[in-house]
Write a sequence for this structure.
């Protein structure tokens, strides 16, 4: 293995390849900030460039840089203007945006950068050591277990079901699940709830709904309720410093979520989005009571958890790609196409036949992560300053950004109409104090929940699969625990306090 | 060796484009000034790759001066078809890429249009379908699969990366029917993408998988899957150890084509120019590099041949879908 690492290092640290990494990271970060362009589209755009380089190692290093840059750039727009451009950064905005509103944008971006760096690096170490033996883990899950895993992910909504809000949060989750059924599912050869509108046939676009639920109502809120935006926190906005106590509290979160995120990323049917929701749900529920209340209102832990989990999962998704030749996500499917175009066939024989490719991919991940951190930490004060722009300029800018995001990937003007329609509904719900995050969680997980559920039903001939497969039972029991345990704990605490008060 | 070849060709192509040598190079044989490619899906999909690969080969070979691309998602491709028809006058410089689903979706009525509402330019490439099992499966050939199937039809789950009634399902149904089995008895398990379907196969969730041959070859070469049968008329040179359905006594042929369409009412001479550019493309090393890199099979159907081919496919698929109860 040492030989391999040296081989990879040798390839990756040539001046030309370092330039590739730096260029890739910069391109990825800046394009990734635009909400409509996630890692998948950016990689697709960069593939012709990468292929024209010709040398597979250099091309992969460039693409890895773009990939990591895009993931990081996506977090930036989630934190600063509540505009998550890809599903895997939705959980980032849960706590990142409140932090930015409290004037701690610099700190939030720093935590995100460090959590991403750790997630990516720990992921790369795990990939390097365990990749060959993890191939069997990737095939461990059947549809029944994926279904149970989505249920665990759904328990992330608990964070938005604070006192008196349980009903509202459940209602919004249901609404999200209902919206996810629009269009042509993977299981039925018929469009559902499209009302004959052709544009709805592929379902409601994620970006459109995310912008309508998150960015648009926030911008409207700033316009309609000016008092709220007065406490900008002034000079603190650029402040990057994290106190020692804060660092100590987020370190274990980052460690746990890097490993958990990586393992979820290894599963071809799960990926970074599920990893980020699960990370958020798990960390919230194991946090002490006082910190638990902070989640969703600007908790550093709540920001660090999904950020480390989604980066580690992105790295983990390379396990099925490199060892089995199976793409688990849209992004890895595109990367597979690029690899094949470069005459590299991923699969069990890659490590044997072309070890230099395998190792240079892994080494380029390390370098991509390091370069990203080094490039971005000095840039954070300038990026965070966006929020110091006067509101009269900032709000039109956010609106433009949001509308462009919904249009850019699709080139379909109907998306804009849907965005405005959903946006108006979301603004009303926002004023009525309905949490919008559960709706988006329900929407994102809904389709996968349904697909895996009905697939299991068809395979096992009925609902019995839940009882027949111990791992499915285990995961479902875990989901119930995640939701019930905190409630039970707080009730017991209250019951314990009562007699003392008397 | 193969790799060096591709690289050299690509480098030459890029050098030609970068040095602005393209116009000079093209003086002799440029056929069309520019083509705007309309892609009915997002960046990175199969349609996207086909349009961009074709455009790249055409420009680098100097057959066209310039290629531009536009992704227009929505309605599983229906939005882009509608756009072509509604803007027939202004979009004469546009070619839209499409493939077998345009036939299937027109049949189900999901598209209010049909391929004959557009001008058929040419079918350019294709991919045969294949049925595969994990390499460690007991099933050795199609006869083995059918034996397992007749013993326990609902327990022999066969998966694919398309909806029921979609491409992968139709291939299974077509094959089973040709083998004298009841296509309705097949327990077809749909997945949302080819990758997750392949994971389902290797995890043991399904017994066999219906997929594209190009996707199956990579995994068969890696020793992960065994290809039981291919829907090509003869063995495919890229992987000639895989038997065809025909040679196993199952009378099935199927190709998932990809090709190009223009707006309705396109002037004759312009259509002829597009067709000439595409026809000349096959002999260029630039196309060969793109084709080989993507593992495509050249299946060229020009103009009227393309119409005959599509009408035939429409009939075969239509009959099958009626039998399966989807129409």
């Amino acid at each position: 293995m040492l030989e391999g690492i040296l081989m990879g290092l040798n390839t990756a640290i040539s001046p030309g390849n370092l330039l590739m990494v730096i260029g890739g990271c910069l391109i990825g970060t800046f394009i990734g900030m635009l909400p409509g362009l996630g890692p998948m589209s950016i990689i697709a755009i960069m593939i012709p460039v990468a292929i024209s380089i010709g040398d597979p190692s250099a091309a992969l290093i460039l693409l890895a840089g773009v990939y990591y840059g895009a993931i990081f750039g996506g977090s930036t727009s989630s934190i600063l203007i509540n505009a998550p451009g890809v599903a895997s950064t939705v959980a980032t905005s849960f706590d990142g945006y409140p932090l930015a509103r409290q004037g701690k944008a610099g700190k939030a971006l720093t935590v995100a950068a460090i959590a991403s760096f750790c997630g990516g690096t720990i992921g790369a170490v795990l990939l390097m050591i365990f990749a060959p033996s993890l191939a069997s883990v990737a095939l461990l899950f059947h549809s029944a277990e994926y279904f149970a895993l989505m249920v665990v992910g759904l328990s992330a909504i608990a964070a938005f079901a604070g006192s008196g809000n349980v009903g509202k949060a459940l209602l919004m989750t249901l609404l999200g699940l209902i919206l996810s059924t629009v269009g042509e599912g993977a299981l039925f050869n018929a469009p559902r709830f499209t009302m004959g509108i052709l544009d709805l046939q592929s379902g409601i676009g994620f970006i459109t709904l995310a912008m309508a639920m998150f960015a648009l109502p926030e911008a409207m809120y700033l316009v309609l309720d000016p008092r709220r935006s007065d406490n900008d926190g002034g000079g603190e906005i650029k402040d990057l410093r994290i106190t020692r106590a804060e660092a100590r509290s987020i370190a274990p979160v980052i460690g746990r979520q890097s490993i958990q995120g990586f393992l979820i990323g290894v599963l071809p049917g799960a990926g970074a989005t599920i990893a980020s929701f699960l990370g958020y749900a798990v960390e919230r529920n194991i946090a002490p009571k006082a910190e638990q209340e902070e989640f969703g209102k600007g908790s550093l832990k709540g920001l660090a958890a999904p950020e480390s989990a989604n980066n580690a999962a992105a790295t983990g998704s390379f396990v099925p790609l490199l060892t089995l030749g199976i793409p688990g996500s849209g992004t890895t499917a595109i990367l597979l196409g690029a690899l094949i175009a470069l005459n590299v066939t991923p699969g069990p024989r890659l490590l044997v036949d072309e070890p230099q490719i395998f190792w240079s991919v892994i080494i380029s991940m390390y370098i991509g992560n390091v370069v990203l951190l080094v490039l971005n930490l000095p840039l954070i004060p300038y990026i965070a300053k966006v929020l110091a722009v006067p509101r009269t300029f900032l709000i039109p800018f956010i609106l433009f950004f949001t509308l462009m995001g919904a249009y850019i990937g699709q080139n379909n003007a109907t998306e804009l109409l849907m965005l405005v329609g959903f946006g108006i509904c979301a603004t009303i719900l926002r004023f009525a104090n309905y949490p919008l995050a559960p709706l988006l969680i329900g929407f994102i997980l809904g389709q996968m929940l349904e697909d895996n559920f009905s697939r299991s039903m068809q395979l096992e001939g009925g609902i019995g699969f839940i009882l027949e497969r111990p791992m499915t039972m285990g995961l479902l029991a875990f989901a119930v625990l995640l939701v019930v345990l905190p409630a039970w704990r707080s009730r017991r605490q209250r019951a314990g306090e009562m007699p003392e008060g008397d | 060796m193969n790799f060096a070849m591709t690289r050299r060709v690509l480098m030459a192509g890029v050098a030609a484009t970068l040095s602005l040598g393209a116009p000079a190079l093209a003086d002799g044989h440029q056929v069309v000034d520019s083509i705007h490619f309309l892609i009915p899906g997002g960046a990175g999909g199969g349609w996207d790759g086909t349009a961009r690969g074709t455009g790249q080969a055409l420009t680098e070979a100097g057959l066209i001066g310039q290629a531009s691309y536009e992704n227009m998602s929505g309605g599983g491709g229906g939005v882009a078809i509608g756009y072509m028809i509604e803007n027939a006058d202004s979009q004469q410089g546009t070619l839209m890429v499409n493939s077998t689903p345009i036939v299937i979706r027109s049949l189900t009525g999901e598209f209010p249009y049909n391929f004959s509402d557009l001008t058929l330019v040419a079918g350019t490439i294709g991919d045969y379908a294949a049925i595969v099992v994990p390499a460690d499966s007991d099933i050795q050939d199609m006869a083995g699969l059918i034996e397992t199937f007749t013993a326990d039809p609902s327990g022999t789950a066969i998966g694919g990366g398309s909806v029921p009634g979609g491409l992968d399902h139709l291939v299974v149904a077509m094959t089973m029917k040709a083998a004298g089995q009841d296509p309705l008895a097949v327990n077809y398990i749909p997945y949302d993408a080819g990758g997750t379907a392949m994971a389902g196969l290797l995890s043991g969730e399904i017994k066999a998988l219906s997929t594209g041959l190009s996707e199956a070859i990579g995994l068969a070469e890696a020793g992960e899957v065994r290809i039981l049968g291919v829907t090509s008329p003869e063995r495919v040179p890229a992987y000639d150890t895989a038997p065809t359905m025909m040679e196993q006594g199952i009378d099935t042929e199927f190709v998932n084509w990809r090709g190009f369409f223009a707006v309705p009412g396109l002037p004759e001479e312009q259509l002829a120019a597009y067709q000439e550019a595409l026809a000349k493309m096959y002999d260029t090393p630039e196309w060969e590099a793109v084709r080989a890199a993507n593992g495509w099979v050249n299946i060229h159907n020009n103009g009227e041949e393309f119409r005959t081919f599509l009408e035939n496919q429409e009939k075969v698929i239509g009959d099958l879908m009626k039998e399966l109860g989807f129409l």
In short: Residues 1-27 of chain B have pLDDT under 50 and may be disordered. The radius of gyration of chain B is 21 Å. Chain B has two domains: 3-127+257-323, 128-248.
